[in-house]
Amino acid sequence: MSSQEHLFSNPLPAGLGALAMACFGFGAMLSGSVTHDAAPILAAWLIGGFFVQLVVAIIEFRDKNLPGANVFLVFSCIFMLTGALSVGAKYFLHRAGMPFDASIEGWLWLAISLWIYIMLPCFLKSPKILFILGLFLCVALACLVSLDFGITLGRGAIAKTGAYSLFIAGSLAIYLAGAMSLNAHFGRQILPITTPFIK
Q1: How far is CA 183 from CA 25, 113, 134, 140, 177, in A?
Q2: Residue 127, beta-bridge partner list
Q3: CA dist., res. 32 & res. 30, Å (int)
Q4: E strands present in 7-159
Q5: Which of 11, 135, 154, 169 could form a disulfide with 56 if both were Cys (CB 3.0 to 4.6 A apart)?
Q6: How many CA atoms lie within 13 A of 124 on its CB side?
Q7: In sequence order, what are the residues at sequence separation of 6 or more whose Cβ sits closer than 8 angstroms to the Cβ of residue 111?
Q8: Three-state SS for 12?
Q9: Please, which residues have CB within 8 angstroms of residue 110's CB and are 6 or more apart in sequence?
Q10: What distance in Å separates the CA atoms of residue 112 and residue 137, rounded to the nearest whole number?
């Protein structure tokens, strides 16, 4: 089987849809568009996103797309499942009046952020829009790490920057998912998909 043949259809649009959902949910929390009382609902949606992105990762591994498979595996398990468990745990611990120290998340997000930063150049061989989406996620992660480390100077601006970066990344994910799906379904370019930075 050549590298261009696939056993399954391309799962990337589904993975991008789940990513967009998470970006909009976390963006709404960071921007203050919703209160922290929305946390249990966000957690439930993130669990749904976990299953979508896990399937995407498995299919990408099957197609020997190492960067895509690994990124979607980490996205499914860290952004979605761990994010859901963390958001839910913090909410319920807070509501129960139990003490907890969430500052450890700064260190955990720092590790994941550094991993994503080092993986990002792999996507220079993907459509430009996917690489740019990744850049906005990197900005959002830097903001999240800063907030989790308890930076107080400019905290509101950091949160807004993270939120808007997530909204932009989510919008780019929706566009790319739609373009890939429409173009494949109709067998011609309905929406343009940018060429890679590196061929």
Answers
A1: 28, 32, 22, 30, 10
A2: 196
A3: 6
A4: none
A5: 11
A6: 9
A7: none
A8: helix
A9: 145
A10: 12
From first to last of its 199 residues, the chain has per-residue pLDDT tens of 344 566 788 899 999 999 999 999 999 999 999 999 999 999 999 999 999 999 999 999 999 999 999 999 999 999 999 999 999 999 999 999 999 898 899 999 999 999 999 999 999 999 999 999 999 999 999 999 999 998 889 999 999 999 999 999 999 999 999 999 999 999 999 999 989 999 8
How far apart are the C-alpha atoms of 14 and 16, rounded to whole Å? 5
Distance of CA 1 to the CA centre of its chain: 31
Burial grade of 28 (CB within 10 A; 0-12, 13-18, 19 or more): middle
- Tokens, residue 177: 């998912």
DSSP letters for 159-185: HHHHHHHHHHHHHHHHHHHHHHHHHHH
b or e along 136-154 (b: 16 or more beta carbons within 10 Å of the residue's beta carbon)? bbbbbbbbbbbbbeeeeee
Which tokens sit at 123? Answer: 């996507």
Helix boundaries (H) for 97-127: 104-119
